[in-house]
């Protein structure tokens, strides 16, 4: 007996289209300040997506995502100051350079896992913090580091003409982020994603089914580092310069914690993580609260997630939406979707 | 066909596989012995997960022990595990798909092998399957492509007697293609006798008997080491 494979859920596609339309309307509803904040949210959702794919698919705890954003930003500024290239091409090159760096950092992952690997990535993040602090970010100078010195004054990399308005920059950033999410989604839904899931479940089990464990781990490192590097390029686009203090190692830990809160097993969770990571601190500030309070909020959210909701807010929202849909649509067939079933497996694991 | 020559595995001061030399012919061969006899370690050596300190493994004259585990799978080695290694969050279909696309089997094998084990709800995550369904799914994964050497590690573990009997024709089917070697490790002697033409018995890592099932089960050394003093079968 054969069962036809289910295609994309039209309701899900409709929901994604609705979200994209809403996101597109944001600059006309929110002011310039919140448009800029939401631009950061879109950028950091990419770094979160990198951490999410590594954790949710392969079981890797990557604690250097924010450092890799810095690497992407560094490459973007250095190449941008050196040669005049179309902006998308600069982003592409930033992603490629970051992918190479990410693979170098991740090479131990071919042999390590668990806490040991997490520590390696954290040490790498600390290393980059030191390097960024010592070398700074390119500001129009010569040489490998591209630092201005002597009579040459530091300069910002000007935005391309079509990105001069913050509103357009926001839309452009959301579009690029959507493209990167689509890239990761395509990988997850395909052969690589299945192999990653097999590796995440059991390395011997994966190898016994013919999965080239080292090869697929490399593919994951390349893809996630590339996406994170593109995020760095987008971040550097805003002001045309970056501050070394923006990439402390502990921010990578915070980002990972927020990924777990958003949902470590779905890209939807990564999108929520980007929103929380960059959106909640300014929200607290606007409410007149100390921005540092965010660490307490994230701490409580993390404990809640680890103890009661392993699939994070994304998993809970998916299940809630499924339950509501079944209640509203009385003609809908009984039972749950395969996505909800998979979430339930994780919840029970 | 499958030849193990002087195979030895050492874990510190322990030798779970102790200078084993064994020729396995096509068909189903049972590998039995008391707990800790080295059966699973032997399967791990054949799969490439454990490196022997000495000895070699050949299949029809071809060296197997020089291949990485995933290359052995592509060569035609299939393996089920005592603690099943399914991807619990993937659907039944995708659990087979991952084998199909990594061993280079034709795409239609997904439905073929699932039809063979009669698993119907193929969009369900493996984590929601019953124990019997999980065992059937593992056997389906072992059927993908053209397996040459199939290693089944306690496929009947945790199953009721009636459920375990469902495995018998499937294990026979695995060994059906000419030249295919199936090695079955299990403590369920009814299952072992039901499907194995030959038996190899390990005790403390040493091969103490090998031959036809009927003859080995009458071997006084085997009775003393593994079966007890009463006759079996």
Walk me through the topology.
The complex is a heterodimer of chains A (349) and B (233).
Chain A (H helix, E strand, L loop, with lengths): L9 H20 L2 H27 L6 H18 L4 H20 L7 H22 L30 H24 L1 H11 L1 H6 L4 H27 L9 H14 L4 H20 L6 H16 L3 H17 L9 H11 L1
Helix pairs in contact in A: 1-6, 2-3, 2-6, 2-7, 2-9, 2-10, 2-11, 3-4, 3-5, 3-9, 4-9, 5-10, 6-7, 6-9, 7-9, 10-11, 10-12, 10-13
Chain B lengths: L1 E10 L2 E11 L2 E6 L6 H9 L6 E6 L2 E2 L5 H7 L1 E4 L11 H12 L5 H9 L13 H13 L5 E5 L7 H5 L1 H9 L5 E5 L3 H7 L2 E6 L2 E7 H5 L2 H8 L6
Parallel strand pairs in B: 3-8, 3-9, 6-7, 7-8
Antiparallel strand pairs in B: 1-2, 1-4, 4-5, 9-10
Brief overview, please?
Chain A has 349 residues and is mostly helical. Helices cover 72% and strands 0% of the residues of chain A. The radius of gyration of chain A is 21 Å and the shape is globular.
CATH class wording of chain B = Alpha Beta
Rg of chain B, alpha carbons: 17 Å
Mean pLDDT of chain A: 87
Q: Percent helix among the residues of chain A?
A: over 70%
What's the β-strand tally of chain A? 0
Using the alpha-carbon principal axes, give the shape of chain A: globular
Radius of gyration of chain A: 21 Å
Protein structure class of chain A = mainly alpha
Strand content of chain A: under 5%
Overall body shape of chain B = globular
Q: Which strands sit side by side, in order, in the main sheet of chain B?
A: 6-7-8-3-9-10
Runs of chain A with pLDDT <50, length 5+? 1-5
Oligomerization category of the chains in this entry: heterodimer
Roughly how many Å apart are the termini of chain B?
28 Å
Please explain how this structure is put together:
- The complex is a heterodimer of chains A (349) and B (233).
- With 349 residues, chain A is an all-alpha fold.
- Helices cover 72% and strands 0% of the residues of chain A.
- Chain A has a domain at 29-249.
- Chain A has helices at residues 10-29, 32-58, 65-82, 87-106, 114-135, 166-189, 191-201, 203-208, 213-239, 249-262, 267-286, 293-308, 312-328, 338-348.
- The longest helix of chain A is centred in the N-terminal third of the chain and has 27 residues, at 32-58.
- The two termini of chain A are 30 Å apart.
- By secondary structure, chain B is of the alpha/beta class.
- In chain B, 36% of the residues lie in helices and 27% in strands.
- Chain B has one domain: 3-Layer(aba) Sandwich (Rossmann fold), CATH 3.40.50.300.
- The interface between A and B is large, with 31 and 41 residues.
């Amino acid at each position: 007996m054969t069962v036809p494979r289910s295609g994309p859920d039209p309701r899900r596609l409709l929901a994604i289209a609705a979200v994209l339309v809403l996101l597109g309307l944001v600059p006309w509803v929110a002011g310039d300040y919140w448009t800029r904040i939401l631009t950061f949210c879109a950028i950091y959702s990419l770094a979160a997506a990198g951490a999410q794919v590594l954790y949710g698919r392969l079981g890797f705890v990557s604690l250097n995502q924010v450092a890799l954003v810095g690497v992407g930003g560094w490459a973007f500024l250095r190449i941008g100051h050196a040669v005049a290239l179309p902006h998308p091409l600069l982003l592409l090159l930033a992603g490629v350079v970051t992918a190479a760096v990410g693979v170098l950092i991740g090479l131990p992952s071919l042999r390590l896992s668990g806490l040991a690997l997490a520590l390696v990535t954290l040490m790498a993040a600390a290393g980059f913090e030191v390097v960024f602090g010592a070398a700074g970010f390119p500001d129009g100078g010569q040489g490998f580091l591209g630092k201005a010195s002597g009579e040459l004054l530091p300069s910002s990399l000007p935005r391309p003409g079509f990105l001069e308005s913050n509103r357009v920059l926001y839309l452009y950033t959301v579009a690029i982020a959507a493209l990167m999410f689509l890239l990761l989604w395509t990988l997850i839904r395909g052969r690589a994603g299945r192999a990653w899931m097999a590796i995440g479940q059991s390395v011997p089990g994966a190898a016994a089914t013919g999965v080239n464990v080292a090869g697929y781990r490399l593919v994951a490192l390349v893809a996630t580092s590339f996406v994170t590097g593109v995020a760095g390029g987008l971040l550097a686009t805003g002001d045309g310069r970056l501050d070394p203090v923006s990439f402390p190692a502990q921010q990578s830990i915070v980002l990972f914690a927020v990924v777990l809160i958003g949902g470590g097993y779905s890209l939807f969770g990564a999108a929520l993580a980007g929103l929380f990571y960059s959106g909640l601190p300014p929200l607290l500030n606007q409410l007149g609260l100390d921005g540092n309070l965010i660490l307490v909020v994230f701490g409580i959210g993390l404990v809640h997630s680890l103890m009661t909701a392993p699939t994070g807010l994304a998993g809970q929202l998916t299940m809630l939406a499924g339950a509501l849909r079944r209640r509203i649509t009385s003609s809908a067939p009984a039972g749950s979707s395969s996505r909800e079933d998979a979430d339930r497996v994780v919840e029970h694991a | 066909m499958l030849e193990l020559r002087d195979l030895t595995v050492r874990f510190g001061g322990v030798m779970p596989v102790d200078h084993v030399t064994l020729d396995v012919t096509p068909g189903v061969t049972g590998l039995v012995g008391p707990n800790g006899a080295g059966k699973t370690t032997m399967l791990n050596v054949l799969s490439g997960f454990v490196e022997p300190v000495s000895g070699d493994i050949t299949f029809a004259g071809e060296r197997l022990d020089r291949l990485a585990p995933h290359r052995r799978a592509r060569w035609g080695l299939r393996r089920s595990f005592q603690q099943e290694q399914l991807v619990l969050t993937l659907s039944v279909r995708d659990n087979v798909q991952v084998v199909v696309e990594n061993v280079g089997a034709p795409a239609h094998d997904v439905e073929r092998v699932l039809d063979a084990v009669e698993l119907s709800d193929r969009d369900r995550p493996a984590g929601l399957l019953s124990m019997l369904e999980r065992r059937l799914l593992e056997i389906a994964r072992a059927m993908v492509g053209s397996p040459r050497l199939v290693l089944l590690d306690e496929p009947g573990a945790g199953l009721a007697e009636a459920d375990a009997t469902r495995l018998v024709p499937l294990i026979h089917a695995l060994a059906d293609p000419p030249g295919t070697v199936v090695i079955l490790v299990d403590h369920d002697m009814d299952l072992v006798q039901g499907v194995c033409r030959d038996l190899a018995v390990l005790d403390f890592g040493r091969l103490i008997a090998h031959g036809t099932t009927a003859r080995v089960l009458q071997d006084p050394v085997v009775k003393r080491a593994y079966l007890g003093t009463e006759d079996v079968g």
